[in-house]
Automatic annotation (TrEMBL):
Residues 2-358 form the FAD-binding domain. The lineage of its organism: Eukaryota, Fungi, Dikarya, Basidiomycota, Ustilaginomycotina. It comes from Meira miltonrushii. This is FAD/NAD(P)-binding domain-containing protein. One of its GO terms (molecular function) is FAD binding. It comes from the Eukaryota. InterPro entries: FAD-bd, FAD/NAD-bd_sf, FAD_aromatic-hydroxylase. Keywords: FAD, Flavoprotein, Oxidoreductase. Pfam families: FAD_binding_3 (PF01494).
Length: 432
């Protein structure tokens, strides 16, 4: 089987790994950037996705690349903690219910970890600075593409793992197949210098006019700010929409500076680092929902098919699990069977879980972006009460471990199960 994957982020390498090692598929992974991008904020892997990481033999490497975040704190404008949710309760062997996972990792580090796990595989070829320029044919027998370097090649399957605004999806699917759900929230991310006021907590600060500032540690001696805003009036909404769609970095930075000029806390210090931040990223928070995930021999995976938004904390787990399920269905094909059947089975198996994750309550993200000081006070009171409850050891013990708790029941794919057993044996032997 010859497979072309567009996108070397999270889903692409996970899929390539399983197809190569499972059925010796010849996999080409395209990445439009010149090299693997190091940018990206803190993400976590939890639930069944952790099982996939373990089966790939990458658990120890994941732990090694931990961001060092010790928990989540809600703070005042002077940095004083209002409510703290540590990952672990000090002096007690109990996991505390916390927005922070013990498996926090930077997105760029996770992408690099998956890349390193696949780059030396002779069945997998990475091509950087190359994209799919045009899908020429998508027939019963093959899919033919023209690449940006001029090559025209036929493959058995083309996988769109090229993100929320997938260009392959735009070429191969009808407009009515796509629904973009706008959550009326905008986020600016970047990396800033660390100073003496910073620590290893994920600090969240609320200010008026539906604004939020978040600061998260990384393992490189810097800090990862996130500024988010929910526009209130139609005029504000149009202003933020326009700047977001412009892809104009200078305009996006200018808007953030204007909006957060009176925000207080660490806003001034952090915004001084904006102009020189190499990894600045501005995002309109939207969900991607598709009526169908495949057409012929072309299939979407990860954010290209079902971006759930950062509000769910499940973007990365869905990308990992979706790639695994797609690989499982493709490796289950009998000789001579058309891959399009496997692509449909992947959707049938995984779509109900995706729909459940994407069913975000209507009060989110509004509840985390109060408009007034009164609203902020109520929110902080709620968090203070929850903190007092959850950090009691006898209460914390009643909660499941969380990250290792199975949230999606994987189908039994014989070839992938054999691969997992083989990887586990090899890893155990290496440790011995």
């Amino acid at each position: 089987m010859r497979v072309l994957i567009s996108g070397a982020g999270i889903a692409g390498p996970v899929l390539a790994y399983h197809l190569s090692k499972g059925i010796n598929a010849q996999v080409t992974v395209l990445e439009r950037a010149e090299k693997l991008l190091a940018q990206g904020q803190n993400i976590d892997i939890r639930g069944t996705a952790m099982k996939v990481i373990r089966e790939m033999g990458l658990y120890d490497e994941l732990k090694k690349r931990n961001t060092t975040e010790i928990g989540c704190q809600f703070v005042t404008g002077k940095g004083k903690p209002i409510a703290s949710f540590p990952v672990w309760i000090e002096g007690v062997e109990t996991k505390c219910p916390s927005p922070t996972s013990e498996y926090e990792i930077l997105r760029g580090d996770l992408a690099d970890m998956l890349y390193q796990a696949t780059i030396h595989d002779s069945n997998i070829q990475y091509k950087f600075s190359v994209t799919v320029e045009k899908v020429l044919e998508n027939t019963e027998d093959h899919v033919k593409v023209r690449l940006s370097n001029g090559e025209e090649i036929e493959y058995d399957v083309l996988v769109a793992a090229d993100g929320q605004w997938s260009k392959i999806r735009k070429q191969c699917f009808d407009e009515e197949d796509l629904q973009v759900v706008d959550k009326n929230m905008y986020i600016g991310y970047w990396t800033a210098p660390r100073d003496s006021s910073d620590n290893d907590w994920w600090r969240i600060y609320h200010t008026t006019k539906s604004r939020l500032i978040s600061l998260r540690p990384d393992p490189y001696g810097t800090i990862r700010p996130m500024f988010s805003k929910m526009p209130a009036t139609e005029e504000e909404k149009e202003k933020w929409r326009k700047v977001s769609r412009s892809h104009d970095r200078a305009a996006q930075i200018s808007l953030l500076k204007e909006e957060f000029a009176d925000a207080g806390y660490e806003a001034d210090r952090l915004m001084k680092s904006l102009d020189t931040a190499e990894d600045f990223y501005f995002q309109a928070v939207s969900q991607i929902r598709m009526k169908k995930w495949s057409v012929g021999r072309v299939v979407c995976v990860g954010d290209a098919a079902y971006a759930p938004t950062p509000l769910t904390g499940m973007g990365t787990p869905l990308a990992i699990l979706g790639a695994y399920v797609l690989a499982g269905e493709l490796t289950s094909l009998k000789k001579g069977e058309n891959p399009s059947g496997a692509l449909k089975e992947y959707e049938n198996a995984f779509k109900p879980f995706v729909a459940k994750i994407q069913d975000v309550p209507s009060f989110i993200p509004g509840v985390m972006h109060p408009k007034s000081s009164f609203g902020i006070g109520i929110l902080h009171t709620v968090f203070w009460v929850l903190c007092k409850i959850f950090t009691q050891p006898f209460i914390a013990r009643k909660f499941p471990e969380g990250e290792d708790e199975e949230d999606y029941k994987l189908k039994e794919y014989p070839i992938l199960q054999q691969l997992a057993s083989k990887t586990k044996s090899t890893t155990t032997s290496e440790k011995a």
